[in-house]
Each structure stands twice: as C-alpha cells, then as structure tokens.
Amino acid sequence: GAAEYDEGVAKDKVIRTSPAAGDQVSKNSTVTYYLSLGKEGTEVPSVVGKSLSEAISTLNGAGFEVDMNNLQYVSSDQPKDTVISQLPTGGSKEDKSTVVTLTLSSGPQKKTFYVSVNSNGGGTVSASASSVEEGGQVTITITPYDGFVVASASGVDGVSPSGGTYTIRPTEDTTIYVDFQQSQPNNPEPNTPGNGNDPGTDP
Known about the structure:
The mean pLDDT is about 85. By secondary structure, the protein is mostly beta strands. The protein has one helix and 15 strands, in the order E-E-E-H-E-E-E-E-E-E-E-E-E-E-E-E. The radius of gyration is 41 Å and the shape is rod-shaped. The strands form five sheets. Strands 4, 5, 6 and 8 form a four-stranded mixed β-sheet that branches. Strands 11-9-15-13 form a four-stranded mixed β-sheet, with no helix packed on it.
C-alpha cells in the first residue's frame, strides 16, 4: 500500500498490514504492507526575499537553525544580504534537527569603466589607472612641454593652460584628449614715429 508518515516507526519499516496481524484469512489471500515514511516533519518556512536577520528569526521561530558557517554569496540585483535561495526549500517538511543553508545576495555587481589618454604632442597626459570600478576615481596629470600650453581638453573639465592634476569619476568608458599648442612670446611693442623718442630735425 501507499507509504505513510509515522512518528513512531522508522522510515522504510512496516507500519501495519491489511488484513492486520493476527487476523484469520483464507489461504492465498493478499496481504498488503504499509511502509513508514518516517516522521512527517515540520514545514520549512520560505525565507527567499527576506533579509538575513529576518530569515534567521523566521527559521528559528519554526524550530530550525541556519548554517551561519556556510553562508553562500552571489552577485544579484537584490540588496546585499537578501536571501536568494535556501536548502531545504520552503514548503518541504523536515525534522527540526535539519540545518538550513542560505544563499545571499552580495549586492549588484559594480561596472568597470576604462580610461584612456591621448594628445597631439607638445606635452604629456597620464592617468593613475586605466580602469576603475563604478564610483571610483582616476587622477589625470597634464604637463605641457616648455614653450607649450594646453589649448583645449576633452573628458576632463577646467584644465588650466599650464596643465596640472585633475580628478575624474567616470560614469562610462572615458577618453581624455588634450590639444597642446605653442605659447605666444610676449614681444615688446615696436616704437612708433612721433612718440618723442626719435631725435628731432631742425628745419
């Protein structure tokens, strides 16, 4: 017959027979055995979607323990420490000595952005890193050669003609391009006639 739960009979042992033991039956009669599934157990609460602290409280309240030494973490869009899965699964029936293993979210995986630098010559451009995780910073150093100044720069704001060090926080892959040009010499103004510096000529 169909197996049955029984609190007092171990799993796969015979609970009862039909006809019952001791009954008088005719020869060649069929005797049906009913095996035990063991204790029916207690339903394990589903804690998927709960925070770790909420999951522990819920499972402890139902009589189960959480395996705190074997917490699993995976990247997920769920907030950090949210339960992603559990074993045994919610709704299964287990003995209260069963320890529940939880898989938790480590939070959304951060994006990586790449930083490159370039120029037309006339100076140097360097970055403290060629890549950075979302939210990170990169330091850009711009140094014109002697006789050159920064004419323009893209990918970084507020660059002085004399260059300098600047910090950026990329939100996408970024290329820094600097256009250097030769600086204009400060030539003195030429003398003009009639400015009183030329010697006069008598008529």
